[in-house]
Amino acid sequence: MSDSIKYVLDESRLPRFWYNICADLPQALPPVLHPGTHKPVGPDDLAPLFPMALIAQEVSAEREIEIPGPVRDVYRQWRPTPLYRARRLEAALQTPARIYYKYEGVSPAGSHKPNTAVAQAFYNKEAGVKKLVTETGAGQWGSSLAFAGALFGIEVQVFMVRVSYDQKPYRRALMETYGARCIASPSTETRSGRAILERNPKHTGSLGIAISEAVEVAAQRDDTKYALGSVLNHVLLHQTVIGQEAIAQLEMAGDFPDVIVGCTGGGSNFAGIVLPFLGAQLRGGRKMRIVAVEPAACPSLTRGRYAYDFGDTAHLTPLTKMHTLGSTFTPPGFHAGGLRYHGMAPLVSHLKTLGLIEAVAYPQVAVFDAGVQFARAEGIVPAPEANHAVKGAIDEAIRCREDGVARTILFNLCGHGHFDMQAYIDYFAGRLTDHSYSEEELAMALAGLPAVAEPA
Amino acid sequence: MSDSIKYVLDESRLPRFWYNICADLPQALPPVLHPGTHKPVGPDDLAPLFPMALIAQEVSAEREIEIPGPVRDVYRQWRPTPLYRARRLEAALQTPARIYYKYEGVSPAGSHKPNTAVAQAFYNKEAGVKKLVTETGAGQWGSSLAFAGALFGIEVQVFMVRVSYDQKPYRRALMETYGARCIASPSTETRSGRAILERNPKHTGSLGIAISEAVEVAAQRDDTKYALGSVLNHVLLHQTVIGQEAIAQLEMAGDFPDVIVGCTGGGSNFAGIVLPFLGAQLRGGRKMRIVAVEPAACPSLTRGRYAYDFGDTAHLTPLTKMHTLGSTFTPPGFHAGGLRYHGMAPLVSHLKTLGLIEAVAYPQVAVFDAGVQFARAEGIVPAPEANHAVKGAIDEAIRCREDGVARTILFNLCGHGHFDMQAYIDYFAGRLTDHSYSEEELAMALAGLPAVAEPA
């Protein structure tokens, strides 16, 4: 095994394909249903929102989908991203574990999100689209789409969840620096936004509401489309460059993960690192444990129901089968804004149901304890979302110490926290609180799930 | 010439030595003088503030000084840093110029400052020092020393210029995340701070005042030393890894700079990229133009006097010959806090006097115009300080377009602006103002220069 701390792939090893796990799944994904008819949707149903190239990727069964040259040219600016061995953290934890982390914070927008933002901007540009509308939670996704829009000359409009809009003015400033327009959601610019504000003028927003607003604006014009930063198959697909690189980098290190850890909100960074490893396992390769870490204040995978539900609050989106807390569920304003989504990617939900991955939920304060410990050892300050993965990896490493076993732990450090320092300010000031739910509270939002006769 | 956009050196090409230009200068630097006797200082005079290893580097005439293994081990986390070809910016400017930038923002603290912070923390740790005290302007330096202190187990205390302390709460939070203590300067914790506050309780501070406070605290205890983030020879020395790497990377690109641009506050990032190129020129190599860019609101190189002056406001430091605006000069609270220093590195001042470098000063708003144009083309949002270098490079590129000449421009993008987004918020809101001085205003602070009979 090597004694390096950093594993860098040559530019020539930038992946040429996105990996589509649908080709290797033991059981196909349940179909996506039309919100009105409850029948499986066809490509034409999605055409008002997405260009055909992305719709084709959404339903593709091909194992490898070629990454277009212009997308690779942009990726090249920061990819392949480094894989680090966290030697100083290992020493601080006095663990025999070998901890590796893939660091996606080196992208211009500071997270894994540009991997799909650049691809989506490219395909929309090819299709003649002039404007992209989207939602954002913490702002990682909105700023990534703003970045990609600037490169490809597409106008970008972002509905940002109100609580994050107020908490994270720097993230908003980043979007504006890239030339995007950023609006607090719920807003008065859409029917769905106005409906929410009429009931509660001080509504702090949710990803589900912001999605409704973005979808509503996008559906109004032919030259305007919608872009989603997680959840959908094609988004998860674009993130698989992460895991493909990590496989090659761990080979350089002469190592292989016993356990892979990622944080999950919509599921895209988790899928990005996990799917290429899991695909190899499904094709007969070595087995590993895979752990999804989510916030206890938004526990879709650990406490949600696996059922058909809407992706948004106003019920404008198709129905997908996923782990959900109910589309009207509004999580409290905790700092990991990117993990405040009521549902989970259908693909990640499916893997959970097939028993291929585990899930665990952590409260906020313990997650920041872990993030600060990581920052002091490794120098990188993680995003609040990424702190969930850090906490998961540290807990695995502590278990190794207790068991006296030197397992290999890999986690995805999906972004830095430079635009989220208010969260750290609140943490040090003792202003962060933990939030949990009784069974009754969770049951309330689930009672609103649509009645769907599942296809055979 | 290659058509890449990114030039990455293998870890094996991380520099093994810092380059000391004093070995190649046509004329030696004027000596440093004792603040009381006005006689040249000896190593013992500096011993209360710095460990002997750093004092030896401060006065060394050796061309190459070996980088200790533990320092290189830390550098390895983010070095060699990438060199980028700014192809999208070139296209936006419609210039025949080839623009390259060395990107130091990939370090954990987000700037070039860890190059010397890590070295200084290492030598202090070796000397048994328990605590380091320093000043910081924008916070790039304070957060870098906080990072280095966390790695080597040294306590860090930072006096942060009041205006930046208030403008940049995220930078302060970063220092605290690394475990450092951050105090607004002028403070009530020192004699020099209290003296300033008595005269003006609302004083917004200056680097000169913060240095006085840090030096005062450091001189009180044997196990506590002072650390400076720029200006001194040993600090500039540590930054020469930047230029050494850039030389190798431009060789990979099959190119050589006709002009090198850097921003100057104390002078360390500028020296870091410039000195290795300039040393090669002095040893008979190819000539190039070298341009230092400073803010018009703090124009030490373009409008200051080349004279002996104190490094701080309370006159606790030795006297060095440098371009200075006078140690009582307090620049307005503009956003490039790292460039708000009344003096300039003696070494950079010396190069200017020898006619080896040029200098230009830009007003703040034009500098942010350039930074936003750069961000929209290249995706990276520069620090306000770095925007000065961006503006300098863009102006050179526009001149190439006007002259119809394809010159090669290299600039140092010394840090990202993630913690400085308030500056961009103010820029977009039209709240940034330009500040300039009449000759009379500048003469006032210069009238207080110490009367020094210069050594022959």
- Poorly predicted runs of chain A: none
Q: Oligomer, anyone?
A: homodimer
Mean pLDDT of chain A: 95
The tally of beta strands of chain A, per DSSP, is 15
Radius of gyration of chain A: 20 Å
For the largest beta sheet of chain A, what order do the strands appear in spatially?
1-4-5-15-10-11-14
Structural class of chain A, please? alpha/beta
| Count of runs of 4 or more consecutive helical residues of chain A | 19
Largest interface: A-B, 42 and 42 residues
Shape of chain A: globular
How far the N terminus sits from the C terminus of chain A, by CA atoms, comes to 50 Å
Helix fraction of chain A by DSSP (H/I, runs of at least 4): 40-55%
